[in-house]
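step 4 of 6: structure.
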Amino acid sequence: MCDLYYTPASSPCRVVQMVAAALKIKLRLKPLNLHSKEQLLPEFLKINPQHTVPTLVDNNFALWESRSICIYLVEKYAKDDSLYPKNPKQRALVNQRLYFDMGMLTKRMYDFFFPQLIQNTQPDPQKFKEMEEAVELLDIFLENSAYAAGERLTIADFALAVTVSVCELTGYDLNKYVNISRWYESMKLELPGWNINEEGLNVLRQYIK
Ligand code: GSH
């Protein structure tokens, strides 16, 4: 069984938990309290010197970065390639969406919201504009496809839907994005383990209040 070092309020942790649920992989959950800086304890630094959650340990193999973990779980444990297609073009599109999620959408969303949540600063209009640009791009990506990377559910849908759920939680109005709204509503019903995401969002909600 794989160990997963995690914390419920962390969105990348929930993506991994949901992909594991979709693959029917049982994870031995190892909670880390980031507020008490448990991720900086020497035992954990030995496993992951970058001290981030999620961190997966499969026997003696340790891996972090949620999107890499999801790819690993599919490649090692899935009975088929549907969540991470082997076809080069389909896989390239999934990768593009995952990099977009990490490098642009999540980044810009956190750059906008986190200073407000953590330092109680006023919303920065420039950061808001940059986040909106990323959300608009996602809406364009979803214009002609049912899923985030084509016509089948892939790990890109898990990653992006969790990101969008955090956006929604912060009160950002997604209704004006027709394609995101259509896709996101269907993801809430279709994604295995969505309840895991909702439980984590409830924890996060307490920090936001
Ligand atoms: N890109 C990484 C992923 O997707 O796994 C982000 C990981 C990350 O920054 N996790 C945060 C964390 O572990 C929690 S959401 N923070 C503690 C630290 O960096 O010390």
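step 5 of 6: annotate
 - Residues 23 and 79 are 8 Å apart (CA to CA).
 - Helices lie at 11-22, 42-47, 66-77, 88-119, 125-141, 155-169, 178-190, 194-208.
step 6 of 6: archive
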